[in-house]
Specification:
- Keywords: Coiled coil.
- By secondary structure, this protein is mainly α.
- The protein has one domain.
- It is about 85% helix and about 5% strand.
- Strand 1 and strand 2 form a beta hairpin.
- The termini are far apart.
Length: about 180
């Protein structure tokens, strides 16, 4: 018998005892879709071997009579089981593909939404940065205006002190002349 690879990746030789009593792969010990897919692989191999045996020796089937009818019924039963298991596996795989396509579409939509949110956040950040720059420029202009006003005030104060000093000097000079 040739090696069989089940959908779980395990490659084993399938024997009559393996088909009758033991699972074809370790995953088949658990109940569920894994077991059905492994058994479908086993049944497919058995069906192929049964067809190969009958194709190799058609005269032997004719000689066996009742045995050949039982063998033919047995082959048909195995073919039916293999077809049913394959059909169920196809349905399961189709459902899984649809679920994956839905998940992929949802992930794509979520990615697009996240990208749109990122672009909006960048636009808000750019607007806030521009507003901050404008506010900083206004502040800098106000500071410069206040510096100019302070310089002008200091110039006026210096001029006032200068004038006060001249007035004192003139007052002092005129008061000296009065006493003479």
């Amino acid at each position: 018998m040739e090696p069989l690879q089940c959908v779980h990746g395990n490659t084993q030789l399938v024997s009559v005892l393996g088909v009758a009593g033991r699972p074809a792969c370790k995953s088949a010990k658990k109940r569920g879709p894994a077991m059905a897919s492994c058994w479908s692989s086993v049944l497919a191999v058995l069906g192929v071997h049964a067809h190969a045996a009958s194709a190799d020796d058609p005269a032997a089937d004719a000689e066996k009579g009742e045995g050949s009818k039982a063998a033919a019924l047995h082959r048909r039963l195995l073919d039916y089981w293999a077809a049913a298991a394959a059909e169920k596996e196809v349905r399961n795989l189709t459902a899984e593909v649809r679920a994956l396509e839905r998940a992929l579409a949802e992930a794509g939509a979520a990615r697009e939404a996240a990208e749109a949110e990122r672009r909006e956040a960048e636009a808000r950040a750019d607007a806030a940065e521009a507003e901050l720059r404008a506010a900083a420029e206004r502040h800098e202009a106000q500071v410069e205006e206040l510096r100019r006003a302070l310089d002008a005030q200091e110039d006026r104060d210096a001029r006032i002190r200068e004038l006060e000093d001249r007035i004192k000097e003139l007052n002092t000079t005129t008061s000296k002349w009065r006493f003479f």
